[in-house]
Amino acid sequence: MGYFDTQEGIDEYTKMAEGFDGRELIAILKKYLPAGSTVLELGMGPGKDLDILAESFQVTGSDSSALFLEGYRAGHTDADLMVLDAATLDTDRTFDCIYSNKVLHHLTREELEESLRRQAQMLNSGGLLFHALWYGEKEEEMLGLRFVYHTEEILDRLIGDAYDVVETRRYTEMDDDD
């Protein structure tokens, strides 16, 4: 059983994430994606970013943890949610944008490459990917979770010519140079 498959893990993560959300990232996304567009959030966790995205877009939340989805649905009964693994993305639905905030770094590089190929199939014409990842070249494990860091060069190799990169940016969230 994984970290996000227990209520203890969910509660611990939710407490750790207090005070952090993707508002800064979503402001960048709004420069490229028209209001009202359909957005799939991968790995929505407790739903902070989903709530912000919903202010401007038609959103669908997803997570591989049914506990996160159940917790969110308790306060948002009409929410469009689905259990979805970020590597395999087993759905027939399509979207104008696929968004994630520090989720895809849990995938191996091979899984990330598979996910990016699958995401291309899930995008409507002219669709957009918007992902925030941890920066660097190392891999580590914490709390039984994998963390794979990426540089621009690593991402360029993984993406290949499947996508046109519109913008790449580094930002600090918690600590200087994180």
Search tags:
single chain, 178 residues, alpha/beta, Rossmann fold, five-stranded parallel β-sheet
Write the layout of secondary structure elements.
Elements: H1 7-16, H2 23-32, E1 38-41, H3 48-53, E2 58-63, H4 66-75, E3 81-83, E4 95-101, H5 109-122, E5 123-132, E6 139-142, E7 145-148, H6 152-159
Parallel strand pairs: 1-2, 1-4, 2-3, 4-5
Antiparallel strand pairs: 6-7
Helical content (DSSP H or I, runs of 4+)? 25-40%
Strand order, largest beta sheet: 3-2-1-4-5
Shape descriptor = globular
Largest sheet: 5 strands, parallel
Percent strand equals 15-25%
SSE succession: HHEHEHEEHEEEH
Rounded radius of gyration (Å): 15 Å
In total, the number of strands is 7
Uncertain regions spanning at least 5 consecutive residues: none
CATH superfamily: Vaccinia Virus protein VP39
Could you tell me how far the N terminus lies from the C terminus, measured between alpha carbons in angstroms? 29 Å
Roughly what is the average pLDDT, rounded to an integer? Answer: 91
CATH architecture: 3-Layer(aba) Sandwich
CATH names the topology as Rossmann fold
Q: How many individual helices?
A: 6
CATH class, named: Alpha Beta
The structural domain count equals 1
Structural class: alpha/beta
